[in-house]
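PROTEIN DESIGN WORKSHEET
SECTION A - STRUCTURE
LENGTH: 267
TOKENS:
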């Protein structure tokens, strides 16, 4: 078996073991050092795999499978940094579990698509901003789902121990809106860079494509949620629904469009 495949399975195993340990009942809020070491090893090896599969000498290869793997790596990396300040092993476990699947996508669907204009400065700025916004809002959406489940358990009289590794709901909500604020700012900058560097990034003047439409729709949803939070104090299930709706729009804008074009239509 080639080295790339072996390394991919190794990373998937490191993420999976970390996820299993972080999600088991009775796990402390501050994860044991050996679990953090497993995650760090997975992140480092995963980065090397992305360097080989995405950032090739000829161009950036960022089709559907590489995009999924890259977003998985960014998400687990950003969350590992976030957890240094606010440890949330229950959510970090889900992120690691999803990353264990994401790292294997390039093996199942080999990615041979070179991105046009990927050598330009405008493309690199747009790419970094877009991916960071995507992974922060992905983590926010995942946290919103777990908050919803946590809140329902509490309403039914279940003990907090039923959701291992989670702090009080108010702490989760505070972190959620910090993630949304950061993701919204990055998404705003990503859209602005797409407009500013349109001809450099896409080779043509900005137009209202399927991807642009859903990205703008996601921006409007998250903007309305943050405005509702500031003006009317939106929280709880209402905030959860808006967060998930905004992320679904973003999912359709980027990964969804790539899946349809490359996997279903073979374009």
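SECTION B - SEQUENCE
RESIDUE ASSIGNMENT:
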């Amino acid at each position: 078996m080639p080295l790339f495949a072996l390394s991919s399975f190794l990373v998937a195993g490191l993420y999976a073991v970390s996820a299993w340990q972080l999600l088991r009942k009775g796990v402390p809020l501050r994860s044991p050092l050996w679990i953090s070491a497993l995650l760090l090893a997975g992140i480092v090896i995963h980065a090397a795999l992305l360097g080989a599969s995405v950032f090739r000498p000829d161009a950036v290869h960022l089709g559907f499978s590489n995009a999924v793997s890259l977003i998985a790596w960014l998400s687990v990396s950003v969350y590992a940094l976030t957890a240094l300040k606010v440890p949330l092993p229950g959510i970090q476990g889900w992120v690691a579990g999803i990353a264990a699947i994401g790292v294997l996508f390039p093996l199942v669907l080999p990615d041979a698509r070179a991105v046009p204009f990927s050598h330009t400065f405008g493309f690199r700025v747009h790419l970094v901003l877009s991916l960071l916004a995507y992974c922060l809002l992905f983590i926010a959406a995942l946290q919103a789902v777990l908050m919803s489940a946590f809140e329902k358990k509490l309403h039914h009289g279940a003990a907090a121990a039923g959701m291992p590794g989670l702090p009080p709901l108010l702490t989760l909500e505070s972190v959620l809106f910090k993630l949304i604020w950061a993701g919204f700012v990055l998404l705003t900058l990503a859209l602005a860079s797409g407009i500013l560097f349109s001809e450099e990034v896409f080779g043509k003047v900005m137009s209202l494509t399927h991807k642009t439409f859903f990205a703008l729709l996601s921006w409007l949803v998250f903007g309305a949620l943050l405005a509702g939070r500031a003006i009317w104090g939106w929280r709880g299930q209402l905030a959860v629904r808006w967060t998930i709706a905004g992320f679904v729009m973003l999912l359709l804008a980027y990964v969804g469009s790539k899946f349809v074009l490359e996997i279903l239509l073979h374009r």
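SECTION C - NOTES
The mean pLDDT is 80.
Residues 117-267 form one domain.
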